[in-house]
Amino acid sequence: MEGVSTFRKSLFRGALGAVSGLLAGYTALAVAEVVASVVRPQAGPVTVVGGAAIDRTPAAVKDFAIRTFGENDKLVLQLGILAALGLLGVVLGILSLRHRRTGAAGVLLFGLIGAVAALSRPDTGGIGDVLPSMAGAVSGAAVLYLLAGKLASTPGDEAGTDGWSRRGFLIAASVTAVAATGAGALGRTLTGRRAQGAVASRSAVKLPAPSSPAPPLPRGVQLKAQGISPFTTPNGDFYRVDTALVVPRIDSDTWRLRVHGKGVTRSRTYTFQDLLDRPLIERDITLTCVSNEVGGPYIGHARWLGVRLDDLLRECGVTPPSKGGKADQLIARSVDGMTLGSPVEEVMDGRDAILAVAMNGEPLPFEHGFPVRMLVPGLYGYVSACKWIEDIELTTFDSYDAYWVKRKWARKAPIKTQARIDTPKPFARPTGATVTIAGVAWAQHRGIQRVEVRIDDGPWRDADLAPQATVDTWRQWSYPWTTTPGGHTLTVRATDGTGRVQTEERTRTIPDGASGWHSVFVTAG
Fold first, then answer.
1. What are the C-alpha distances in Å from 341 to residues 120, 261, 412, 416, 519?
2. Mean pLDDT for the chain?
3. 3-state secondary structure 338-370
4. What's the CA gap between 51 and 505, in Å, rounded?
5. Is 124 helix (H, G, I), strand (E, B) or coil?
6. pLDDT grade, residue 242 (50/70/90)?
7. Residue 41 near residue 246 (C-beta atoms within 8 A)
8. Is the separation of the CB atoms in 36 and 109 below 8 Å?
9. Closest CA to 339 of 56, 44, 55
C-alpha cells in the first residue's frame, strides 16, 4: 500500500509539473502579446514562427493545406503551433521537477528560436522584433522556475529547499494564471487601439466617382438556377488565400507606394490621396487563385475601382519589352514582405491592370488589401494580385525570382480555361423529370464562347449561356437535363473566346494551375 501511495503522489506531482509548464507557456505568450502590441503586432512569437514555417514549407505541402483546410489553413497552423507549445510546456514542466534550471533554460531556448524567426522574416522591423519572443521567454522561464520550486519533494533537492507546499503551489499557480490572463487581455486591447488609426482612415475614405465607369451588367447575367454562385461575390464571401497570419492594418494617411528599378527614368513615390486624385477606372474583374483545384471555390468576381497601372508606369518612364523596355518583370512588394512577379508586357498591353482602391463600392476590406492592391486580368493571383502593396520594382525574370517562383511555381501563369458545376452538388439525389445543371465558366481576358455538358459517356450537349459581361469576367451557364433513374456522372467543359476547348488532361495546381474537366456524380430519383 505504501508503494501505491508513493506512486500516486509521484503521479500527482508530475501532473502539477505539467500544469507548471503549461502556465509558463501561457505566461510567455501573454507577455509576448503585450510587448508585440507596443513593438509591432506582426512580431509576436506565434506569428513569426508560423510565418517562418510557411516560408520553409514545400509547395506541395502548402497546396495540400489549402486543398484540405481551405481558408482555415492559417488557423490550423496557429493551432498546431499552440499545441506544440503546450506539449513542450508539459515536457519542460515535468523535467523541471528534477532539473529546475534545465526546464527554465528550455523555455529560454524557445524564445531564442522565436527571436531568430523574427529576424528572418522578409518584413522584419529589425532588432526590436526580437523583444516579444525574448520578453515572453524570460517571463515564462521565471514562472516555471518559481512553480517548480513550490513542488520540491524533499528539502535540499535541486527543485527547491522549502519542501513541497501544495498550498504555496496553488497560490502561485492561481496568481500566475490571473496575471497572464490580464496581460493577454491588455495585449489584445493595445493591439486593437494600435489598429484604430487604420480603421479610422478607412472609414474616412471618400471614393471619387470614376472617370471611366464600368458599363451596367447585361440583363440576365445572373441566372435564376437554384444553387448557382452569385455573379458578383459579396466582399464577405470573397475567397482569401495568402500567407499573412496577421492581416496588416495600414493607415492610408501614412501609406506610400514607391515605383523604381530598371528602366524607370523617373522614380516616384505616391500617397493614397495621390491615387484618389488621379482619373479612376471602374471595372468588373473575376479573380482566380492558382491553388484552385478543378471545381474548386477559390474564384470570385467583384467590381473594382482604381488607377490604371500602365498609366502610372508610363508616367515613371517605363516602356514594355516589345518597345525596347529594359525590364520584363514587375515585382510588387507587400507590407508583409510578400513579393509577386508580373510580366511587364501583359501589364502594359492595354488590359485593365489596376491599382485598386475599392471593391464592390466600398474601400478595400483589410483582408483584401486596404488601402491598395494590384490586379491584372487574365493572370493568376500569385503573379498579379498583390495585396497591401507598398513597392513596385522593375527588373527582369533572369535577375529575380519572386516568393512563389522560389518555391517551384511557374514564373508566368495565365489563367486556364475552366468550367464548374455548381448545381446539383456531388452525390445529390435530384428528383423530377427535368433537372437544371448549372454553374460558371471562366477564361479571363479571353472570355467564354461555349459550354458543353455530358451525361455519363454520352455526346456533348451545348449549355445555355448567360450574357458575357466582359472577357475579364466569368460566365454563367445552364443545361436542362431530362433525367433517367439511377446514378449518373455529369461533366462540363468550356471553350474560350479564341476557340480553344478546355483540356481534359488532369494536372495538379503546381506549377501553373490545375486543368481537367469537372464532374459530379448524382443519383436521379
1. 21, 13, 8, 18, 33
2. 92
3. CEEEEEHHHHCCCCCCEEEEEECCEECCHHHCC
4. 35
5. coil
6. very high
7. yes
8. no
9. 55
342 forms bridges with which residues in the sheet? 330
Q: Which residue do the cell numbers 522565436 mark?
A: 114
Of 188-197, 220-229, 366-375, 455-464, the one with minimum mean pLDDT is: 188-197
Whole-angstrom Cα distance, residue 252 to residue 271? 8
Q: Tell me which long-range contacts 153-158 makes (C-beta under 8 A, separation of at least 24).
A: 153/13, 153/97, 157/98, 158/98, 158/99, 158/100, 158/101
The DSSP secondary structure of 3-20, one letter per residue, reads HHHHHHHHHHHHHHHHHH
Residue 66: pLDDT band (50, 70, 90) is confident
Confidence class of residue 5 from pLDDT cuts 50, 70 and 90?
Answer: low
pLDDT (tens digit, 9 = 90+) per residue, 391-436?
999 999 999 999 999 999 999 999 999 999 999 999 999 999 999 9
Q: Is the bond preceding residue 58 a cis peptide, omega within 30 degrees?
A: no
pLDDT at residue number 331: 98
The owner of cell 527582369 is: 396
Cell 492561481 belongs to which residue?
A: 174
Q: Hey, how many other C-beta atoms are within 10 angstroms of the C-beta on 422? A: 21
